[in-house]
């Protein structure tokens, strides 16, 4: 017996003080024929510990040979230690049959899935050697086992439920010394034909393993449909198998050890003896029952670090074995996966009802105690008392007066139907002496009320649950920190750059912590160019993420200085070696010039990019000089220039997308080429197509960065360039040229602002130029891009101009009116650029 209290009374036998108690073994076998549940009764009966039984083939542990007729008793015993039972055909019952029917299929047929109905039988076997606490049976003494087997159908792995009992112990409890004095057979009966059948049906889940209300209800319905397990005695008596598993003693018979203790002077009156030490045995059994319950709960909860799943496991563990209703409430900081709550809760602490489990009809309490409700508990309630003291609160029976008083503290909820007349136990969920929440446990009036032993059991259950919840909370908190850090380090890439459209994807790895060192970036460069970057820091975790942030910042800085691709990777390699010996990364850096229609690329140990040609839809891996990873040092980097046409697509990614453990990376690269060439309605759809194509097998552990750019180019008639003399009179000419070009493009509303800004920038170039030429370029894309180039390498600064100063306000005007602006130097030349938003038609 694994479930109910040892102190319970069997239905219909309230006055039978002579009822003995038989341990009932409960075993569940999965679809593979392996033991998935092994109760404490199975340990006492077969002598095999739970940890040794679960996962083993059931045929190795159970009496699969079944009952055998008399004519086979002379044969040799099976090799596995099992022996035939010395009995006739009536030693195994057939559903709906009588003891005189022929033998039905044995337990081996049930284990093999060969039957669709319940079977029962009897067998003898030699158990393995027992340890001192497994039972009282001597080593080598054969077991006489009664068993019932129920095939299970429906979802889930469970396929067979087996109940078993010790027939020898049953004879002792019945008061027989000779096994031939009474014939006993396991069988089945309609539960409605048994005394107190409604109570038997209600208590049946307590026989079953702790599987949760949903699965337990499904198994109960199948057991009731196939037949309730009973024992049939030759005196035409039929006893149902119950959670407390008491069997009546034969009238006038007493066990031999009890008879030896009777006093001679008691002959004057009939005597019915109780076995010596029965009361102590019952108390010990009750304690052991609760310890076994806690052990089972501990093995069930905490199977996942997901906070929501852990909450459901903790709440469901108490129903129906320990309580009929369980509700878990947690503080907001715990539920959000934030840091550890500060200080004890008080009247202002908001609690969330995060899960409710009960064995009433579905939806019975949805309106009374809805899941997800958040509120502060009133002070004059037992819930508040448990929350602030951190101690269990036990109310054996909630009287109507007390229930009315408690319910009156809640304005929006009438709790009287839930708590009045019921037994209430509230236990705190604590970790590191801080209350994280509490659990409300309720028993119905027809069930024994909670007592002090239950309070101790509930407190221990809550203590274990609190530790599990805190572990899940810490994991959720660390995961949130990692995700926040990762998100903060990934750029917000604009979908449209000058002459190209961009789409990106980032997928975190499945390793614990999930944070990695993959990154991508797009950087706006002078001349309407765009830098495309993908990198992968070797390793995972916070160190890799921090290194990724440093390298990404360095790339952005050097790109803004118009550092050529090969030189940029050399500088990045030097930086990584200065930062530390463990700084290793791969990087692919590309610069797209939409006016010239070319891409310049440099590679530092990274996987090559894929170029998809718009003309024929073909795709190819670009053959680039592959340098060593960043941080190795001493290896030169080379740049390659590739001509592209409008509409071509360039795909850059990290190795997490194409590498799969146990597969050649060449297969992944080939799949990348094939999926990249697949037509798509948009850039986002194209990225999703690649992700789906290369992530079909699952199990991806590395993070993935994907960057795709459609290289649209800029038509020649959308670019205008002039060369100006470094003379003050050229400023007026620059304004005139810009006005004429904008009017030719049909952008009259942009003329006034453009003339003012061009005048300020060209004036600065003429005033500070060291050569005799100044360049002016206007590029039309989604915005107007203006560039002014001169021979002075010093970058301009915005200065604070006083009321009487004649200069120093030009760049302030540019900064105020332009959408964006900037300056960069290359060699002995500098370029000042600004961007102006327009709304005219193209």
> Got a strand count?
34
Averaging pLDDT over every residue, what do you get? Answer: 78
CATH architecture heading of the largest domain: 4-Layer Sandwich
Specify the biggest β-sheet.
6 strands, antiparallel
Let me know the CATH homologous superfamily of the largest domain.
PPM-type phosphatase domain
- CATH T-level topology of the largest domain: Phosphatase 2c, domain 1
Radius of gyration: 41 Å
Spatially, the strands of the biggest sheet line up as 3-2-7-6-5-4
What structural class should be given to the helix and strand makeup?
Answer: alpha+beta
Number of spatially distinct domains: 4
Global morphology: elongated
Tell me, what is the CATH class of the largest domain?
Alpha Beta
Number of helices: 21
- Helix fraction bin: 25-40%
Fraction of residues in β-strands: 15-25%
Poorly predicted segments = 1-20, 65-106, 131-136, 249-279
Distance between the termini: 84 Å
Domain PAS: 26-56
Organism: Streptomyces misionensis
Biased composition (Basic and acidic residues): 1-10, 79-93
Keywords: Hydrolase
Brief overview:
The protein is an alpha+beta fold and 842 residues long. 29% of the residues lie in helices and 25% in strands.
Descriptive tags:
disordered N terminus; GAF; Beta-Lactamase; 21 helices; HATPase_dom; alpha+beta; six-stranded antiparallel beta sheet; PAS-like_dom_sf; 4 domains; 34 strands; 842 residues
Explain what this protein looks like in three dimensions:
With 842 residues, this protein is α+β, with helices and mostly antiparallel strands. The chain folds into four domains: 23-64 and 142-173, Beta-Lactamase (2-Layer Sandwich), CATH 3.30.450.20; 286-480, Beta-Lactamase (2-Layer Sandwich), CATH 3.30.450.40; 491-711, Phosphatase 2c, domain 1 (4-Layer Sandwich); 716-837, Histidine kinase-like ATPase, C-terminal domain (Heat Shock Protein 90), CATH 3.30.565. The strands form seven sheets. A six-stranded antiparallel sheet has the order 3-2-7-6-5-4. Keywords: Hydrolase.
């Amino acid at each position: 017996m694994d479930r109910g209290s040892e102190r319970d009374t069997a239905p219909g036998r309230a006055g039978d003080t002579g009822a003995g108690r038989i341990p009932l073994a409960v075993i569940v076998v999965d679809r593979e024929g392996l033991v998935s549940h092994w109760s404490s009764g199975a340990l006492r009966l077969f002598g095999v510990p739970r940890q040794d039984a679960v996962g083993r083939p059931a045929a190795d542990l159970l009496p699969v040979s079944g009952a055998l007729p008399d004519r086979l008793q002379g044969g040799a015993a099976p090799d596995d230690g099992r022996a035939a039972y010395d009995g006739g055909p009536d030693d195994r019952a057939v559903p709906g049959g009588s003891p005189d029917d022929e033998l039905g299929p044995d337990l081996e047929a049930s284990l093999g899935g060969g039957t669709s109905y319940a079977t029962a039988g009897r067998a003898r076997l030699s158990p393995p050697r027992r340890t001192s606490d497994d039972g009282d049976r001597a080593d080598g003494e054969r077991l006489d086992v009664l068993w019932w087997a129920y095939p299970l159908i429906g979802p889930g792995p469970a396929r067979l439920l087996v109940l078993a009992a010790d027939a020898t112990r049953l004879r002792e409890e019945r008061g027989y010394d000779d096994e031939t004095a009474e014939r006993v057979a396991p069988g089945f009966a309609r539960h409605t034909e048994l005394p107190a059948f409604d109570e038997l049906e209600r208590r049946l889940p307590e026989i079953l393993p702790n599987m949760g209300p949903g699965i337990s209800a499904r198994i109960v319905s199948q057991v009731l449909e196939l037949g309730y397990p009973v024992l049939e005695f030759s005196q035409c008596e039929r006893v149902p198998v119950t959670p407390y598993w008491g069997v009546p003693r034969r009238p006038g018979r007493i066990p031999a050890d009890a008879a030896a203790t009777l006093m001679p002077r008691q002959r004057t009156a009939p005597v019915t003896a109780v076995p010596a030490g029965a009361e102590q045995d019952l108390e010990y059994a009750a304690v052991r029952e609760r310890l076994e319950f806690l052990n089972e709960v501990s093995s069930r909860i905490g199977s996942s670090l997901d906070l929501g799943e852990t909450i459901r496991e903790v709440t469901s563990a108490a129903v129906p074995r320990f309580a009929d209703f369980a509700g878990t409430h947690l503080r907001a900081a715990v539920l959000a996966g934030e840091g550890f709550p500060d200080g004890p809760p008080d009247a202002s602490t908001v609690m969330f009802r995060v899960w409710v489990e009960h064995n009433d009809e579905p939806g019975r309490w949805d309106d009374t105690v809805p899941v997800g409700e958040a509120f502060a508990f009133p002070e004059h309630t037992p819930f508040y008392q448990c929350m602030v003291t951190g101690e269990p609160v036990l109310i054996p029976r909630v009287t109507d007066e007390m229930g009315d008083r408690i319910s009156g503290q809640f304005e929006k909820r009438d709790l009287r139907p839930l708590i009045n007349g019921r037994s209430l136990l509230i236990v705190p969920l604590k970790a590191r002496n801080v209350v994280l929440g509490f659990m409300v446990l309720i028993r119905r009036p027809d069930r024994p009320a909670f007592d002090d032993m239950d309070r101790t059991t509930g407190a221990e259950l809550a203590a274990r649950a609190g530790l599990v919840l805190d572990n899940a909370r810490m994991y959720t908190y660390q995961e949130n920190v990692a995700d926040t850090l990762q998100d903060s380090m990934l750029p917000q890439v604009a979908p449209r750059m000058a002459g190209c459209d961009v789409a990106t994807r980032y997928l975190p790895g499945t390793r614990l912590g999930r944070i990695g060192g993959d990154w991508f970036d797009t950087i706006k460069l002078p001349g309407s160019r765009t830098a495309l970057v993908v990198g992968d820091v070797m390793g995972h975790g916070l160190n890799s993420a921090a290194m990724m942030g440093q390298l990404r910042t360095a790339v952005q800085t050097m790109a803004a200085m118009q550092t050529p691709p090969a030189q940029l990777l050399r500088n990045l390699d030097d930086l990584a070696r200065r930062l530390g010996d463990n700084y290793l990364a791969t990087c692919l850096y590309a610069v797209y010039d939409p006016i010239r229609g070319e891409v310049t690329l440099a590679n530092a140990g990274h996987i090559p990019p894929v170029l998809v040609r718009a003309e024929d839809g073909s795709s190819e891996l670009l053959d680039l000089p592959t340098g060593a990873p960043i941080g190795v040092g001493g290896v030169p980097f080379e740049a390659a220039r590739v001509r592209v046409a409008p509409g071509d697509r360039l795909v850059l990614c990290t190795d997490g997308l194409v590498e799969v453990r146990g597969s050649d990376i060449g297969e992944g690269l080939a799949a990348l080429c094939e999926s990249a060439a697949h037509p798509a309605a948009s850039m986002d759809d194209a990225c999703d197509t690649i992700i789906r194509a290369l992530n079909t097998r699952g199990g991806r552990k590395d993070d993935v960065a994907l960057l795709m750019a459609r290289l649209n180019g800029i038509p020649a008639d959308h670019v205008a360039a002039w060369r100006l003399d470094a003379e003050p009179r050229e400023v007026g000419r620059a304004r005139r040229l810009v006005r004429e070009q904008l009017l030719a493009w049909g952008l009259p509303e942009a003329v006034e602002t453009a003339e003012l800004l061009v005048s300020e920038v060209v004036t600065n170039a003429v005033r500070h130029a060291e050569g005799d030429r100044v360049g002016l370029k206007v590029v039309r894309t989604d915005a107007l891009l203006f560039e002014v180039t001169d021979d002075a390498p010093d970058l301009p600064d915005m200065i604070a101009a006083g009321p009487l100063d004649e200069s120093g306000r030009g760049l302030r005007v540019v900064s105020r009116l332009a959408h964006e602006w900037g300056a960069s130097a290359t060699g002995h030349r500098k370029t000042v650029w600004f961007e102006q938003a327009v709304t005219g038609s193209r």
